[in-house]
Amino acid sequence: MKKVLGLVALGLLLAVPVFAQTVSVGEYTANPGDTVNVEVKVDDKVTNVAGAQVLLDFSSVTPAGGPALAVTSEADVKYGVIPAGGFIAVNLGVAGQANIGVVAMNGGNGPGTLLTIPLKVPADAAPGAVYALNLVTADLNDPGGNVLSVTKVGGKITIAGAAPPPPPAAGADIQVGSYEAKAGDVVNVEVTVSDKVKNVAGAQVLLKFGDIGAVTAEADVKYGVIPAGGFIAVNLGVAGEANIGIVATSGGNGPGTLLTIPIKLKADLAAGEYPLTLATADLNDPTGTVLTGLTLGNGKITVAGVAPPPPPKLAKVEVTAPTTTLKVGETVTLTAKALDETGAEMPGQTFTWASSDTAVATVDAAGKVTAVAAGKADITAAVGDVKSAPVTITVEAVAPPPVAGAAITVATDPATPVKPGDVVNILINVNEGAKNVAGAQVVVNFGALGAVTAEADIKYGVIPAGGFVAANLATPGEANIGIVATSGGNGPGTLLTIPIKVAADAKAGDYPINITLASLNDPAGTDIPVTVTGGKVTVTEIVVPPVAVPGDLTGDGKLMVDDVQAAILLAFQPTPDPEKVKIVDVNGDGKLSLADLRIMLRRSLGLPDAGA
């Protein structure tokens, strides 16, 4: 009796998809020494296809180690569906692969044969060997270069003369292992089959293990015996169960491990024996015939008993502070820890905070202390009846701000960074403490940054107009400037503007601007005390833009078949965009020609320009 294993019963719903816009490879039977014309076909959903890039891999053979297939020659590869008159290029540089590109102006419609690739079967190919035909890449596009979404379906070549597969065996045994573990362990539960199990290609297994833990992850469930390359689906939707389905196109033989199911035991799982029950264990061969008369063996996990440790007991509360001195208005957050009798921290505790003098410092529920007034206050934290030692917080009064005097600072316009060759204005600014200023002498040192553009370009401010300014630029990297007037002006403002042209060979980095001399005076010639603060100019490197990839019309930084398609469209425009022509003029003759298109197509497939 035949029975097709329905994975729908598992809740896994491994339905066969209905493909739209499909690119597929045929399945063939051949003798050693034959040439097989492998056809890559498209269905009737594929329309208006004008370009294709297909990478067919035929390097995989079962059993492994067999002799390799080979394309008869590049010239023997033919294309269809896409209208005649296009270009085709073939790269056979990688053993076991054919990388093929086709481009044309107009599009064609499926169904039909997109490519015919003649493969030579080795004369010493083993009967029964199976060569997989895998579509690694199958990219299609229309005349506008738009990519068509497709589904890829591979094929195979079977070498004739193989003995028929053995009939499915009846009375096979399926066994779950038994294990010893501790609470919290991960147990790799194995479902094994005996040597009576032959040609098994599908399995449906429901393992029940109860409320002892959970499977670590669906992806951690692995299968064996059944050959690799099949499909596995795992349903963990019901607690305490693992519902697993496997399907493959060829069968494998026992003895061996059919499934490995890692189960993470609960950390608090009590000592005892816990059954592992095979509620369902159905196997079938590649034709879907169920192996009947199987005996099932259940297993168990024995968990050793571990006495739980006694709960920790609170012994003390510790409070630490980043600082114990604050000024009025400042805050600091204290940290409290609850410790057991061994000194280990007991997390998850709620602390009650208190201040001995809230007029000096307050503390909130998170341990944040706010300084209120000058004085001292003790801060404590408690959990129940256990209170910490006090942390004394000293609060100091805030001193009044000092009276500001005259000060000179350095700024730049524009704000740095600048590049070599730029002009940057060094601004010598005075603050509001500069009063009744009628004269000044300032020496500014700017080192290797560059040079003042011209003495006449130096301007002054704050001091009223009508005075005199003089500049000595004799020392490289320095400007010695004097200003005199008959009346005084007040800050804040810009006392001097000194334009400096950054040296063309200036290296990237920071260049200090130092004021080595600064004196101010009022109209009577009385000195005005002043403090100075220097500045800096940051110079950055000039960045050279990256070089574009020849032929990259799409601007993605690489040359692909879609760029060739776009170049064909560009070639047939009445007035092609000159900038785009420069991009696709890969042979450098100043125009877009057929030779450019051929070279671009070969480069997109990784072929050399020679032969274009």
Task: Describe it.
It is a single chain. The chain has 612 residues and is mainly beta. It contains three helices and 48 strands. The strands form nine sheets. Strands 2, 4, 5, 8, 9, 11, 12 and 14 form an eight-stranded mixed β-sheet that branches. Strands 1, 3, 6, 7, 10 and 13 form a six-stranded mixed β-sheet that branches. Helix 1 runs antiparallel to helix 3 (594-604). It is flat. 32% of the residues are buried.
Write down the Rg. Answer: 42 Å
Biggest beta sheet attributes: 8 strands, mixed
The overall pLDDT, averaged over residues, is: 90
Q: Span from first to last CA?
A: 62 Å
Please report the number of helical segments. 3
Total count of strands: 48
Overall 3D shape:
flat
Structural class: mainly beta
DSSP strand (E) fraction?
Answer: over 45%
Uncertain ranges: 1-19, 162-171
Comma- or semicolon-separated keywords:
612 residues, six-stranded mixed sheet, 3 helices, single chain, 5% helix, eight-stranded mixed sheet, flat, disordered N terminus, mainly beta
What's the SSE blueprint?
Layout: E1 22-25, E2 27-30, E3 35-42, E4 49-57, E5 61-62, E6 70-71, E7 78-79, E8 87-91, E9 97-108, E10 112-120, E11 130-141, E12 147-148, E13 151-153, E14 155-159, E15 173-176, E16 179-181, E17 186-193, E18 200-208, E19 213-215, E20 222-223, E21 231-235, E22 241-252, E23 256-265, E24 272-284, E25 295-297, E26 299-303, E27 314-320, E28 325-327, E29 331-333, E30 335-340, E31 352-355, E32 361-363, E33 368-371, E34 375-383, E35 386-387, E36 391-396, E37 406-413, E38 423-430, E39 437-445, E40 450-452, E41 459-460, E42 468-472, E43 478-489, E44 493-502, E45 509-521, E46 527-528, E47 530-533, E48 535-539, H1 561-571, H2 578-584, H3 594-604
Parallel strand pairs: 1-13, 2-14, 15-25, 16-26, 28-36, 37-47
Antiparallel strand pairs: 1-3, 3-10, 4-9, 4-11, 5-11, 6-10, 7-10, 8-9, 11-12, 11-14, 15-17, 17-23, 18-22, 18-24, 19-23, 20-23, 21-22, 24-26, 27-30, 29-33, 31-34, 32-33, 34-35, 34-36, 37-38, 38-44, 39-43, 39-45, 40-44, 41-44, 42-43, 45-46, 45-48
Helix pairs in contact: 1-3
